[in-house]
Amino acid sequence: MGIMEEAKRGVTGEEIKKVAKDEGVSAEVVRRRVAEGKVVIPFNPVHSPEALGIGKGLRVKVNANIGTSLEYINVEEEVEKARVAVEAGAHAVMDLSTGGDLDEIRKKLLKVVKVPFGTVPVYQSAYEAIKKHGAIVDMNEDDIFNSFERQAKQGVDFAVAHVGITKQSVERLKKQKRLIPMVSRGGSIHMAWILHNEKENPLYKNFDYLLEIAKEYDLTLSLGDGMRSGAIYDSNDRAKFQELLIIGELVEKAREKGVQSMVEGPGHMPLSHIESNIKIMKSITKEAPYFVLGPLVTDIAPGYDHFVGGIGGAIAGYYGADFLCYVTPAEHLCLPSVEDVREGVIATRIAAHSANLARGIDLNIDKEFSEARRRLNWEKMFSMCIDPEKAREFRKKRKPVEEKRACSMCGKFCAIEIVEKYLGD
Ligand code: SF4
Residue 244 falls within a domain, yes or no? Predict the structure, then answer.
């Protein structure tokens, strides 16, 4: 029996207890929220990752995407990216590989990654359709479901399903006349398939079958945001909300069947749209966990999109987003390197922690850190900061000439030392 089904029957399993302990929340509260679909714990027993809670009342979490592309396949580098992402503090890793032996890559990654592991199974269906039939749009309905089943059997903990890309939402998109009609890879695959075959999205039409697969393997579904805006100009538009309305209905179905589900969100979005987007999403889905990419609060900073996503992520987390998908400095430009992955995770962790503080969580961490700063206790600061490696590097780079305790920013004019000397403790 899956975690949600158990929770619905009043059972508080080990995973729920672990989440409750980590979050400092009572196990009964976590159990109730899992049962209601307001918290998910992506946990496929085949993989058995560290139990991680995502959703209402819990800390904001960070996801890192890695994976090959058709243009660049270096499996060992992807394994290293996964390792570095977790070391830098990512709470979950998603493999978005679209090049090479996908089953083998996933197998290797699943061995290394001990946190929840996610995928987008339709990538595999599309990749194999090109090899088998010569075109993505020629994949058949079974190809799509088979990828979900194969990956769940292998141990994947959560999988993206672009169930909101339907004939209806595609029609809405056509009328919308967006600046950039669609930027989601999975979304575009489904849209192309629907238009080419003049048929409904199989994941939507046979959602019950998808739920059966998910239930069998306790696979958490991440209901994908195919209509996420790829330009500030297109943010919070009718196409986006059309998709969200469909997803809202499917979240309810998943809950009825005891399948854990979360909902994905934008995308490019001005700061002023973030609060309303989250409130509407939470209202339509009756507080499903919200997994957002970024949001990216400007279009014009390629090379710095980890900052752009960090700004959006902090605000989104404050207003109720539960899970932030990182953005790396390479976003919109190329497949990220290992260092880009590290930078992306750190930037998103800063966003998540900032949101947690604003929600009144983990204030003691910053308090303790500031006490160390007041004492100029560098070792303590390094041991507590989000990126100790970088902080140490900076301190070493320009040591103070005479002062032992201050840094080279002010040296003899160190305000902290002057105040300590004359004001005392
Ligand atoms: S020298 Fe200036 S920047 Fe450095 S610790 Fe002292 S007050 Fe802070």
Answer: yes
